[in-house]
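Q: What does the assembled structure look like for these inputs?
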Amino acid sequence: MLTNRQLQVLQVIVDDFISSGQPVGSRQIAKKDNVSFSSATIRNEMADLEDLGFLEKTHTSSGRVPSEKGYRFYVDHLLKPQVITNQEIASIRSIYADQLMETEQMIRESANILSDLTTYTSVILGPDVHMHKVKRFQIVPLSSTQAVAIIVTDSGHVENRVFTLPEDFSMRRIEKVVNILNERLVGKPLVEIPLRMDGEIAKLIKEHVGAYSDFVSSLFNRISAQEEGRVYYGGKTNMLNQPEFHDINKVRMLLDLMDKTPQVQTLFQAGNQQGVQIRIGSENNLLAMEDCSIITASFDAGDNQHGSIAIIGPKRMDYKRVVTLLDFMSGDLSRLLTNNR
Amino acid sequence: MLTNRQLQVLQVIVDDFISSGQPVGSRQIAKKDNVSFSSATIRNEMADLEDLGFLEKTHTSSGRVPSEKGYRFYVDHLLKPQVITNQEIASIRSIYADQLMETEQMIRESANILSDLTTYTSVILGPDVHMHKVKRFQIVPLSSTQAVAIIVTDSGHVENRVFTLPEDFSMRRIEKVVNILNERLVGKPLVEIPLRMDGEIAKLIKEHVGAYSDFVSSLFNRISAQEEGRVYYGGKTNMLNQPEFHDINKVRMLLDLMDKTPQVQTLFQAGNQQGVQIRIGSENNLLAMEDCSIITASFDAGDNQHGSIAIIGPKRMDYKRVVTLLDFMSGDLSRLLTNNR
DNA sequence: GTTAGCACTCACTAACAACGAGTGCTAAAA
DNA sequence: TTTTAGCACTCGTTGTTAGTGAGTGCTAAC
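A:
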């Protein structure tokens, strides 16, 4: 167990390093008002903290830098949430001023505000479309060979795919299929569609319009498979301000990562849990994120659906501030999205 | 007018600089097989070319670098198109192998291939949706207060917006509006919708369902205004490989630019014209593009619609190669998209 | 008109010293 | 026993200097 003094020293070092980005030395700490021991004492404590794995040195005679374990301890035990300022509240709430704004646009705007407020990169994972329920299904023929299939969900989300019609598909048959599908699928969540298509509905379609069930079901698989939760970014290039990202290769990996939706989604795994989650450096199990931390919070979008909101920043990001902001904002978003329904 | 020898010297310098990225000196040129004069002669020619504004020096005793004017002259008069290799043709054509691929996915894939082939960043501007014609219009109610409006175009593109219903809008009235709109709008290009909405249709709706025309027309404005041609990128981070982009600020400006669709579209202004267009550095009139060149070509997507395909690279990009590839690829795309209709 | 020769420029590199922020350790003070 | 002052040592950073080499412009000879 750490002594009180060790806790204090660790806290001061992490805080100091977060705000300065420079390794912090014993003299610097000793000069602080709330520290009453000499630099030599602190040097001893620092050596102990280093032995315990909480601190690191960049070279033999430099100041200390928190290790990942150090950050982890800091966020788990030493993090005192910051108070949010009125000004910050104002700029967050300004998003919701325009009542007519669509949900999607509002989420986009939230991402921007969040990245402006933090100077880091923000990510918002829209509510998982899989749980949305089918409101209407429709096929619109474009020509004698092509048509577009459309699914409208209860959330107002519209999915569509262009497909090539089988040669002998007549208008009447299309209508019949559409009717069957609407009868059977309206009210069901998107995720269940492929399942249902393979069972009862395949039979029904076979009975009424012939053996085209294969074709229809493959169409549906394509529709529901592709649609993952949408990802929105704010301040994608903010990380270029951080001195730790002057390395072009790191920047490149990170930027490339952001265009790969599935990989980004794995970063949110633990985001399902309640409250704010913090993942530090290698805890993300992703090479590109080795020097980054991600802080996530989930919000409620009604109907048992939830999205996630996150900040990606350097490991030495301002955890206090970001945690507070995310907590506040996810609460606001939840309230807004559940009331709207 | 430039002498033959000056032309040759300029050509060699530009070619050399493009491939090496280093300022090129008189001795280097003299050593080339196809150059038969001494370095001193070349020095004199270079001094003249510099006076004429085609070359620049980075400092008093360094080799020469092409100026923007030099590049311009090079692409206008000295550019001999390269032959395209079978291997390149093969990788381009591999995109079209999968007949079932949707147009959008194919365009996305084209952008990727193009950036891989060139190691620069590729941009594809999808066909302008404004010219697509309305195929079907529809309103799907979601709840007592909200509904989603859907427009399907003849190309299979689907536009949709969620909107809040006026309080006294009944299902019957909605159907009536939908009918009127379908009667009057099917077959008309999207771009004409706002115009028509203000004229005849406003009257019709007023006659049949009361004074809701304002509401409907504002809805339509929102639909057709927002939808610009879609922009697809390939190799967004490729530019980080170029030594001229080790400057974080340039990278940042460029990456930020890429997320601003309207600004990117201005880069394609001249792309309407036939054939391949080259814009060098400040010719783009855009700070972020000061050190970049963009080469564009347009392709035909049938029905008098066209898209653009472009490569963004450093000013010293391999113009020969890129011009050839773009020319070839735009032709291929045109053939493919016009046949498909 | 062309070219050899030469003095000059200037970025780049290596070597070196001086500096300073930091450490670990020891011994004295509390 | 704990804390602290003192000191030797480490190592990154900065500045200086000199040497190198790729390049130029100019002049005079070919």
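The domain at 4-78 of chain A is CATH 1.10.10.10 (Arc Repressor Mutant, subunit A).
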